[in-house]
Amino acid sequence: MPNMNSHACHVPIRTCVACRKKSAQKELLAFLLLPAGIVFDINRRLATRKYYVCRDAECVQNLDKWRKKRAKGRKA
Ligand SMILES: [Zn+2]
Prior knowledge:
Strand content: 25-35%
CATH superfamily: YlxR-like
Helix content: 10-25%
Strand order of the largest sheet: 4-3-5
Structural class: alpha+beta
Radius of gyration: 15 Å
Bound molecules: zinc ion
Number of helices: 1
Number of strands: 5
């Protein structure tokens, strides 16, 4: 009987910043938060801190809101 707890079944899980829903990393869009704005990590080659969002028009639209709220909360 195969061991269902094997690490072979492990899928990296990330949280969408817009709706806070957890999904498999490959189901989400990775992006970076730069001073100039949001940059999608299309090539997955950038090694800086990444954030994730659903491949969903609503969540992507909410990204800008999230970014502004986040910038407000940080009085740096
Ligand atoms: Zn989402």
